[in-house]
Design brief:
Rossmann fold, 4 helices, rod-shaped, 2 domains, six-stranded mixed sheet, 12% helix, alpha/beta, Spo0b-associated Gtp-binding Protein, Chain: A
């Protein structure tokens, strides 16, 4: 199951306290201050990695903490810094600060990193507080607290082409015949319950296509399966809008999806679109809707022509 959203708490490490220490050397009865500084706390860093493709880790474990810095020591020795905690997320991940409701980072490239919570600085040892009139200071500065945040992690899959349409319009079948993906196909609605990606190769060109789970009227308000997956359309360059030729009202089907895209927002309705009539081998073509091409995904009829059109538009 694709996990594409999680809320977690993160806490960077605290800085170590500065030390209060005085030199104790042979023949020197009253040595000066030599307390060292505390080590810095570890930070929490997120990294974009293609080795992960879901956020399931962050559903299982909802709290993460980096290592604290160690306190300072005598002889002006600085405490050891806390280790950073590096958390991996897949490309397409967006992280939001829940408190400020602001976007922190949008991960799109492998290896991209972002420090989300900074570790606290180490405190100062008493050696820093010596002066001409204060020869034996016992003051020190404690380490700073590491940053603590509640964050929303959201995955928006990265695909060049999104295949959309009402349930049972043939989206999964189309993806299976044009790409290396093997989505579940069956003659009933909501066969696909999560987005499926596939790599398409055609005449020396390639692109990534995504089968978006069936949208229905009211999807943008949470009905059906579509609401939580509409976000995955946001990154696509173009949309293949698949319409069932055997539907009672293909024109209404088309307008239903268009309405949901517009209601959801994020400029989905403004994306470039290829309107495709599917199941052209079974039923007559609709007359009340302007479409770009008619195909039979099941029989692979004119799917090459559709790919020619997709490549041209991309």
């Amino acid at each position: 199951m694709l996990v594409d959203e999680a809320i977690i708490k993160i806490k960077a490490g605290n800085g170590g306290d500065g030390a209060v220490s005085f030199r104790r050397e042979k023949y020197i009865s009253h040595g000066g201050p030599d307390g060292g500084d505390g080590g810095n706390g570890g930070s929490i860093i997120f990294e974009c990695s293609e080795d992960v493709n879901t956020l399931s880790q962050y559903v299982r474990v909802k709290s993460y903490k980096a290592e604290n810095g160690k306190p300072g020591m005598g002889k002006q020795k600085t405490g050891k810094g806390g280790n950073d905690l590096i958390l991996q997320v897949p490309p397409g991940t967006v992280i939001y600060d829940i408190k400020t409701k602001s976007k922190i980072i949008d991960f799109t490239k492998r290896g991209q990193q972002k420090t989300i919570a900074r570790g606290g600085k180490g405190g100062l040892g008493n050696v820093h507080f010596k002066s001409a009139t204060h020869q034996a200071p016992k003051e020190f500065r404690p380490g700073e607290e590491g940053e603590e945040k509640s964050i929303l992690i959201e995955l928006k899959m990265i695909a060049d082409v999104g295949i959309i349409g009402l349930p049972n319009s043939g989206k999964s079948t189309l993806l299976s015949v044009i790409s290396n993906a093997s989505p579940k196909t069956a003659p009933y609605p909501f066969t696909t319950t999560e987005p499926v990606l596939g790599k398409v190769e055609h005449k020396g060109k390639s692109f990534i296509a995504a089968d978006i789970p069936g949208l229905i009227e009211g999807a943008s308000q949470g009905k059906g399966l579509g609401h939580k997956f509409l976000r995955h359309i946001a990154r696509t360059k173009i949309l293949i809008h698949l319409i069932d030729a055997c539907s009672d009202n293909p024109s209404k089907d088309y307008q239903t999806i268009r309405k949901e895209l517009g209601t959801y927002g994020a400029s989905l309705k403004d994306k470039q679109e290829i309107i495709v009539i599917n199941k052209a081998d079974l039923c007559s073509l609709p007359k009340k809707i302007k479409y770009d091409i008619a195909i039979s995904a099941l029989l692979k009829r004119d799917t090459d022509k559709l790919l020619d059109l997709v490549i041209k538009k991309i």
